[in-house]
């Protein structure tokens, strides 16, 4: 759709004109602009009800063999009220959006597992039994026969034996003394411990920012 320049076409008179609302009209005559020649030619347009409107030729735009105006004629239906014209008012609006793009920059992470030996030296407790035979050789009666007992950390176990005498008596032959000694021993052991190491490699080096 092209607008007419200030030079008036010869076939403009009698051409059909349609406003923005689809109302039909026709161009009946042309005249030059007012005293100021820079205003350009103007066209008298006759509407369906016979009303004539003076419109600048520069507002006419060619459209399928006719011309179109950028406004709408509104008929009031009352001869006492003037005809109204409606002009569209447009405004540009800016919408700002965002999107995610791949810049090609980033990092590459390599993870490796390293092994190392560590010596653990921990004190451990253990029991060691020491057996000692103590000769006694004392005659005792059954009522006075010694019983197994503890003397501190030492367990005393009486060993009785019957012997033949003029009369039968109990002879305390010996005592077995068992002493428990507690001591610390060191037993180094080797264990394998693992630790993770992270190496960061940039693969966008040399790329322009």
Based on the model shown, name its key terms.
SH3 type barrels, about 55% strand, mainly beta, six-stranded mixed beta sheet, 14 strands, rod-shaped, single chain, four-stranded antiparallel beta sheet
Outline:
The protein has about 210 residues and is mainly β.
The number of distinct helices, counting runs of at least 4 residues, comes to 0
SS-derived structural category: mainly beta
From the spread of the alpha carbons, the general shape counts as rod-shaped
pLDDT < 50 runs, ≥5 residues: none
Amino- and carboxy-terminal Cα gap: 46 Å
Order of helices and strands: EEEEEEEEEEEEEE
> Approximately how much helix is present in the residues?
under 10%
How many whole angstroms does the radius of gyration measure?
A: 62 Å
3D architecture notes:
A hairpin with a 5-residue loop joins strand 1 and strand 2. The chain has no helices and 14 strands. It is rod-shaped. The chain is mostly beta strands.
Outline the secondary-structure elements.
Elements: E1 16-18, E2 24-31, E3 42-47, E4 52-56, E5 61-63, E6 66-68, E7 72-74, E8 84-86, E9 107-120, E10 123-140, E11 149-151, E12 154-163, E13 169-186, E14 189-202
